[in-house]
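Protocol step 4 of 6: structure prediction from sequence.
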Amino acid sequence: MTASHPAYIENAYTRLMRIDHPVVQEGMGPFETARLAAAVSNAGGLGTVSVPGTAGDLRVAAAQFRASIEKCATLTDRPFAVNVPVGHSRSGGIAAFARIYIETMLEARRADSVLTGQLRVITTSAGFPTGLTAMMHDAGMLHQHKVGATRHAVRAAEAGVDAIIAAGLEMGGHAPRSGMHSLVLLPNVADAVDVPVVLSGGVRDGRGLAAAICLGADAVALGTRFAASTDNPDWHPRYAERVLAAGEGDDLLLDGVFGPCRVLRNAAAAQITQASAENRATSPARKIELMMRAQVEGDTEHGLVLMGQVASGLRELISVAEFVPAIAREAAELLHLLSVPASSR
């Protein structure tokens, strides 16, 4: 059994999710994240299993998704989440691909009572279909939804979601169409809803977590930072190497699968950007193929490397077991320092 960790910061979000630290591993599809998710959960945070993609044979992809869920459950006895970009159908319901993944997740929970107690959270993004939250609550799950605009946060809260992830434009991968940066979006969302808020975008250490808490967040979600870790063995090592080598200005936004997507500035990104400028669409399947080329084959020049602007401040691989409690401890120390009168420091 995994031992509990000292809780440096306890709040509504950590109690709701039953985690020790207000640190979440972002959904990082279409890549394999089962072992990374387990590492984050074992460290006291909330790990996340990602879906394989939204193109190709979805039944095969759903089987891979279930295998990833079950693998994660064998590697941790702590709570973990899944991330599903849900989209929406023409009738306003859940998109067909997302429905397959959600039913696969629910089948896995029904088949294993132990897994049911661990897989308690679904994170959704890329749309907010009617009835989704009620469906998750009926299944005994918590539902947190990612938004890039305050009006979307309000809509999700009114629908009954348990937590909101406010996604700032500087985040890696699919970014909000609103173009809102974290420093502006987070306090707007925190002021507008009465549920816990998680910040995604721009955080790399305890300073970012402390700042997020000061702006109204209860937790932070990290993707790029966890991608460059020693606990991410399912990704080609060149992916992390390229992320760590990135500097300011080495990223760009292009048209992704669900909207704007922040990636490394390389040959693959230039090709898609040029095609878009010439009104030549690159199919979602092709974009996912290019993402997998970087993650699986390590081709970080001709594959799409999803990463946030925070990559410009990363210089070394981290150990998740050390990093998760350390970021919470550093944030707690900073918040304590802020509470002490300047004359007493």
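Step 5 (inspection) to follow. The chain has 14 helices and eleven strands.
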